Amino acid sequence: MSKEILHAVISRNFEDLTKLHELPLELPLYLQDNLNHKIRPYQEQALQHFIYTQRSDAADIAYNHLLFHMATGSGKTLVLAASILYLFKEKGYQNFIFFADSDAIVKKTRDNLTNTVSPKYLFNPKGIFIEGQPIYIQTVDMFPLQPTPNTIYLKLTSIQKLHGDLMEPKENGLTFDYIEELKIVMLADEAHHYFADTKRDKKKLTKKEADMRSWERTIENILSLKHSNRLLGFSATFNLENDLLFSKMQNKVVYQYDLKKFMEHKY
To answer: Carries keyword ATP-binding (predicted)?
Structure first.
């Protein structure tokens, strides 16, 4: 079996296009226009790789679950924000669930994506505009069945709460039956936390690992509700030396930018 990850396959395809004097994918202008920070060259490459997969006719099958494996400090959340805009504009997604295994990370990301006066705000603080139309980001606990046009709905939660809400449904709460009617994009922070089942296989699990195994299955259940659903993971420390993990994620690592490259590029 090849030890080549998806990132390498896409990079080789881009090199072939360059040899044929065909430009690799150019980022849509609305991405940079609607972000608060200049997209760095490696972030541009990450987004090019992502867009390449989503333009594929096989995207719903082959590229519905992807991982950005990028060093701490390299701006993974800016790539996340740009991915939201792309999927909204080009693919019609309006429902996004961001989750992490830490309430502190959820709070920080809420600031990054919704607090226009925060110095860490990632979108254009003057407003998001696509084709002259204002686009609004609305945080929600429940996604509307009849969404308002030009609105991105964002649910930010811990993985523990998301799992608990789905496993023990409450009145007017989120359920698998409810989200089965929706197109959903899941955004998983530090995605290496959600693969205890894969990493440990049948070995004895600690309580923490048993919890993580349950989270992994919940995430996979949401993803399987619709072919059009997406799962984008972001991690700086995904252990691809683990054979079980590598076999599962080999064709999902859409972009890899490790600490060594980050330091070589003097960022």
So the answer is: yes
